[in-house]
Amino acid sequence: MTRRTIGLSPATTKSYGPAVFLQRADFVSLLHENEPALAAYNASPVVKHIVHKIRKCGEMAEKYEQNRDFVAFVNLFADETQPLPANWQASGKNPTVFIDHTARRTTLIDPRLPPPAVERKRGRSAPPSRRQNLDKNGNLIDLASRTAEIAMLVEERLPDLAPKIRKKLRLIERLGTVALNQLANDVDLIMAISILDSDDPVISTEFEEKLNHFYTSLYRSGYGKGPQKVKFQFSRSNLLQDAFSQILAVDSQALRRAKLAISFDDEEGLDYGGPSRELFYLLSRELFHPYYGLFEYSAPNQYSVQISKYSNLVQHDLQWMELAGRILGLALIHRCLIDTFFTRTFYKMLLELPITVHDLQEVDPEFGRSLLWLHENPIDSSLGMTFLVNEEENGQVIEKELLPNGAELNVTDDNKEEFISLMIKWRTERGIQRQSQALLRGVHQIIDRDFLRVFTADELELVLSGSREIDLEDWRRNTEYRGGYFDDHVVIEWFWDRVAQMSNADRLKLLQFVTGTPSIPFEGFAVLRGSNGPKRFTIEKWGEESALPRAHTCFNRLDLPSYPTPHILRAKLHIAITEGINYAIE
Fold it and tell me: Mean pLDDT, the chain, as a whole number?
């Protein structure tokens, strides 16, 4: 091989690693200024994942240097017009290998990354620098469209600053960019933006203790303990009707205490947990889907669902809602995740917690803002507001009093809080009160309300639905191997390389294929559950090269043949997760 040597830079030129570069405070600014790098970042979930792990967890970048996409991304920041740092050498092409003679190591990452900026002193007459509207992860925030979300989080986590921050958020709503520029260095607003550091709620030790106490209390009270079993047999093609006729027919006390034995028509298999988990996944996808009319999306651009105001048009709607409640209660008892995320107001309804104006802004921002304005501004009788609302009923608009003689009672500063409370109750219960009561009745038939009250709305969402974003490092770290496979085995390396290249949707399909559910417990892969408690994701060497991968959902086990090439593995795995279902127990 012909060696190509690039001239060495002066000894004063100093290099530093990609991890240090990615963890710099100004990395986000550099990313948004580098259009090719920004495009590569947005186009690759793998690159996003790696950058996030290095920035948030302080992991070393060297472990990712074999990932071509990541290396190409980082090298987009290198200034190839500059000489290499002292004692560095470049060798070869496609790829170029960089040799650090001082550290006696090689790397594919170009060491000519931008050096840390030297902070310049500002003259007395110079204006202060403007802070970009970035969250702590470096994402540009469209504050004007997220003011309601920020206000709700601030109310919970920064209650002392909430009134001041709300006023600034309303200013942003009215003035847009002008207000953002004015408030760019506002400390209160910067603190509010920092709350958006993570899309997922923070899992605290307190919550883990709370969850352990919840399940311990259920077990001591005999919930789901057996020894009796309730057996269900369902048809995949008639799942909802089978669930309606079978689950509602069982005495609620028996459902509380019995173990579940689930089977599907014409499918060989024993229920050691896999079919049960899959049942809750499949039922939740159908029962809570807006297509069936019982539930609806909370907003055109949201995928969280709530009880539909038109659910009364569904035949036997109250019985269907009771079934929905029983499904949620059983999922909690048996630690099975569902494939549905509800609105915050729905979780609060399940917990019988008061709903606030900020909760309401999630489902009806305009209505929530109007009530918030009433709360924060003086009111007099000249506004002509009374305890009366207009409501549509059977295609006609009618007037409804919020309390007896409400049409005669003016809204004033003295009674406006009662008016706001009644308006929230009317808005959240409008047209769905009977359905909500039926659903709650179904939940409480299975699990006593006192057990649920330990959770907040955010915590209940995590317990019911888990997390939808897959952490690849957590997945691999908590995977076990059998039959001759080990973490560095070449076939296993090919497997994880393929998983890294998958979209998040395909990773969820793979997870469902092996475990029976596409959701992840909030604690991560370390606590995946099998037939008799926690059972980690397992890959076992099995089968001929011509065979497809095989899954044992009861044991979270993937039987993976030792394929001769990564291309064959990729093709076989694709067929398995898109077309194959196999719950056979050998």
Answer: 80
For residue 263, which of 240, 226, 236, 281 has the smallest C-alpha distance? 236
Q: What share of the chain is helix, strand, coil (3-state, %, to 5)?
A: 50, 10, 40
What backbone phi and psi angles, to 5 degrees, belong to 350? -60, -35
The amino acid occupying position 294 is L
Q: In which residue are the tokens 């109310």 written?
A: 155
Separation of alpha carbons 276 and 282, rounded Å:
10
**Strand ranges inside 183-324, DSSP E:** 229-234, 259-264, 295-297, 305-307
Give the HSE-up count for residue 446: Cα atoms under 13 Å, Cβ half-sphere: 27
Kindly state whether residues 103 and 160 are assigned to the same domain.
Answer: no
64 phi and psi angles, rounded to 5 deg: -105, 10
As a whole number of angstroms, the distance between CA 438 and CA 321 comes to 6
pLDDT tens track for 89-100: 888 767 788 888
- pTM assigned to the model: 0.54
Check whether residue 261 and residue 324 sit in a common domain.
yes
- Angle between the N-to-C axes of helices 239-247 and 274-287, in degrees from 0 to 180, rounded to the nearest 10: 110
How far apart are the C-alpha atoms of 193 and 57, rounded to whole Å?
Answer: 21
pLDDT band at 327; cut points 50, 70, 90: very high
Q: Which residues are catalytic?
A: 554
pLDDT in the model for residue 206: 76
In our burial notation (b when 16+ CB lie closer than 10 A, e otherwise), range 375-391 reads eeeebeeeeebbbebee
CATH assignment of the domain containing 564: 3.30.2410.10
Look at phi and psi of residue 138 and say left if phi exceeds 0, alpha if psi is from -120 to 50, else beta: left
Question: What phi, psi does 15 have (nearest 5°)?
Answer: -100, 165
Domain count, the chain: 4
Residue 239, in any domain of the structure: yes
- What is the predicted pLDDT for the residue at 127? 35
* Nearest-angstrom CA–CA distance, 100 and 112: 12
Using an 8 Å Cβ cutoff, are 37 and 78 in contact?
no
CB half-sphere exposure, 235, CA atoms < 13 A: 6
Give me the sign of the Cα torsion angle 519, 521, 523, 525.
negative
**Which residues are paired to 388 by β-bridges?**
401
